[in-house]
Recover the amino acids of this structure.
């Protein structure tokens, strides 16, 4: 009788040990499968990221910018006293003229949560360029929220909006993201341009419009050239300020020029 009990006890122990070993083996297999799945997911993410970078590279390229030869409007704020209000622009905020140490000329201080448009409406020709300079004044680039500029369907400055109509948006706090798009027709291009080296010095912007197409250049680098206007779209240039600045950061703009083509 004692021998039978001992045998039963031994059998139970063997089964328990076997069960633990099987569980451990299954656990090991599960961990290996989990590791393989995680590695596969990481490879997929890396592949997608590389694909996005590749697409951005397609949208970018250096090249000479053809500027219009017939100047229709120019504004560098040289006729305004420092501290005065620029009456060549209208805004729902303020348009004060300032100077900056180490930089030539006068600049319009772009206040947060404000929108700026030309005081007069222009009847733009079919083909023209609109150029200006931006200074992102800050100790670090993450102190500036995104700002946008482009062409709206009206010349109202009743409220601050971003990415109106046909737009270019500079994501300063992301350091290199630039979004270009339009609501009519629905178009969106996400590309990259390193904004950080342009802290505290002028970044030259050129918008080159030809009919329903617009090419966007930053520092002579073409970021996009695509259809961004409907055939009958009205064009009213605007600057939509960042919604927030930190640590006394600012955006300044100047040296505006609109030019048509006669040749």
């Amino acid at each position: 009788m004692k021998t039978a009990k001992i045998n039963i006890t031994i059998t139970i122990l063997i089964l328990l040990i076997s069960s633990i070993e099987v569980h451990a083996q299954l656990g090991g297999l599960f961990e290996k499968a989990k590791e393989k799945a995680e590695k596969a997911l990481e490879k997929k993410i890396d592949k997608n990221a590389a694909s996005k970078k590749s697409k951005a590279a397609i949208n970018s390229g250096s090249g000479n910018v053809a500027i219009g030869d017939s100047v229709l409007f120019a504004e560098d704020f040289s006729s305004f006293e420092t501290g005065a209000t620029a009456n060549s622009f209208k805004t729902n905020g303020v348009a004060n003229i300032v100077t900056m140490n180490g930089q030539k000329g006068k600049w319009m201080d772009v206040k947060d949560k404000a929108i700026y448009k030309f005081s007069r409406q222009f009847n733009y020709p079919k083909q023209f360029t609109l150029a200006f300079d931006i200074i992102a004044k800050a100790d670090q680039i993450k102190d500036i929220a995104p700002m946008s500029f482009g062409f709206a369907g009206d010349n109202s400055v009743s409220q601050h909006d971003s990415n109106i109509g046909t737009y270019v948006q500079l994501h300063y706090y992301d350091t290199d993201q630039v979004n270009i798009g339009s609501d009519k027709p629905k178009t969106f291009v996400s590309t990259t341009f390193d904004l950080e080296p342009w802290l505290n010095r002028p970044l030259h912007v050129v918008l080159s419009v030809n009919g329903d197409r617009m090419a966007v250049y930053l520092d002579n680098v073409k970021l996009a050239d695509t259809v961004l206007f409907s055939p009958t779209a009205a064009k009213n240039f605007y600057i939509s300020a960042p919604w927030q600045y930190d640590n006394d950061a600012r955006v300044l703009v100047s040296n505006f020029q609109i030019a048509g083509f006669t040749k």
Remarks:
- Residues 153 and 233 are 7 Å apart (CA to CA).
- The chain is about 20% helix and 35% strand.
